[in-house]
Design goal:
This protein is α/β, with parallel strands linked by helices. Helices cover 39% and strands 11% of the residues. The radius of gyration is 19 Å and the shape is globular.
């Protein structure tokens, strides 16, 4: 495995000399992937100033699954990082899996086509491996008020899927009722459901239900409250990566707590998408693929939520809509 990129400065210098305009999308007719890679690289909260370098560093570290979104506001920079990483590693577009997401302000079926066109342009790609509906809510075009809105948008996404510009479509942050609604009233079942999962929010029954339906699960925020976006509140559990049980398992296994968190997630049959802008952490997280946990270690981590059960990403109050109805810590 190549470790060409040893420091952010090297990547930045190389990116500065790269001449691949985003208007010339990277195209391939086929993909090597029959399913989404288990360990991905998340781009949520990656600052525009170093998003390109971080994405290129991730590809050099070995990641072949990138998770993006319109709402992250950095897809042009992510696209530059993809272009640099592929060129410097002599990889083809079909060697990586790229996910993006439809944002709430484009749920109107007449705007979905515009959304995918802009996403592909920003990323410099001809197609996505996966396009998710970010939330089951939309913003009214006249007032901007948020409301439940997903069926019509999903049907419009189905048409995009049929066009071949997205290879798979899925959802994110849906409740059981909303997921059933999509399945019962559509021709295309979501191939992937992305939602928050970590030892403080294991969602075991919900994950099993998806798997029984043949829907893959992607876990975001695998490090729980280590994400700086989550404002600490009274009564919060300790940071996951400093949790006593996590530290104990890490010491026993010879892994870092970050690697333990990721290995635990992958052992449960879903894929995880850690994010970091630091090259050392990017490489460390990728090392989770070599972190082997014993059954008693996995069980010990399973027990953590009995002491601390916490969902950190819940914009129900801001949206004025109850989300995650029927799920843990809704």
């Amino acid at each position: 495995m190549c470790m060409i990129l040893s420091a952010p400065a090297i990547a930045a210098a190389a990116l500065g000399s790269l001449q691949i305009p985003l208007q010339q999308p990277l195209t391939e007719e086929t993909s090597q992937f029959s399913k989404i890679p288990s360990l991905g690289f998340g781009t949520w909260n990656l600052d525009k100033t170093n998003a390109s370098e971080a994405v290129s560093a991730a590809l050099h570290a070995g990641y072949r699954h990138l998770d993006c979104a319109t709402a992250y506001g950095n897809q042009k920079e992510v696209g530059k990082g993809i272009a640099h990483g592929l060129k410097s590693l002599n990889l083809k577009r079909s060697d990586i899996w790229v996910t993006s997401k439809l944002w709430n302000d484009h749920h109107d079926p007449t705007l979905v086509e515009e959304a995918i066109t802009q996403t592909l342009h920003d990323l410099g790609l001809a197609y996505l491996d996966l396009w998710l509906m970010h939330w089951p809510v939309g913003n009214a075009p006249d007032t901007g008020k948020t409301h439940l809105d997903y069926l019509a948008a999903w049907h419009a996404m189905e048409k995009v899927h049929q066009s071949g510009r997205v290879r798979n479509i899925g959802v994110s942050n849906f409740s059981p009722t909303q997921l059933k609604d999509i399945i019962d009233h559509s021709d295309t079942k979501p191939s992937v459901h992305q939602f928050e999962v970590h030892p403080y929010l294991p969602q075991s029954k919900w994950i099993k239900y998806q798997q029984e339906l043949g829907i893959s699960v992607t876990a975001y925020s695998p490090f729980a409250n280590t994400n700086p976006t989550y404002t600490p509140s009274k009564g919060d559990p300790p940071f996951l990566l400093t949790n006593f049980d996590m530290l104990a398992v890490a010491a026993k296994s010879g892994c870092t707590t970050a690697q333990v968190a990721l290995a635990w997630g992958m052992s449960r049959g879903y894929n995880v998408i850690p994010k970091s802008s630091h090259v050392n952490h990017i490489k460390e997280n990728f090392g989770a693929l070599d972190c082997h946990l014993e059954k008693e270690d996995l069980k010990r981590i399973d027990e953590i939520s009995k002491k601390h059960l916490k969902r950190f990403n819940n914009p129900s109050k801001g949206y004025g809509i109850k989300l995650f109805d029927g799920l843990e810590d809704a």
